[in-house]
Amino acid sequence: MNLPVRIVVLDRLTLGPAVRFRRPQFAHEWVEWPATQSIDMAPRVANANVVITNKVPIDRATIDNNTSLQLIAVAATGFDVVDTAAARRRSVDVVNVRNYANDSVPEHTLAMLLALVRQLPAYRQSIQRDTWQSSEQFCVFDAPIRTLAGKTMGLVGFGSLARGVAALAKAFGMRVIVATPRPDRSAADIEFVALPTLLASADFVSLHCPLTAATERLIDAKALARMKRGAILLNTARGALLDEQAVATALCDGRLGGLGIDVLSSEPPSGRNPLLALANRPNVVVTPHIAWAADEAMQRLADQLTDLLEAWHAGHPRHVVN
Question: What is the value of pTM for the model shown?
Answer without folding.
Answer: 0.90
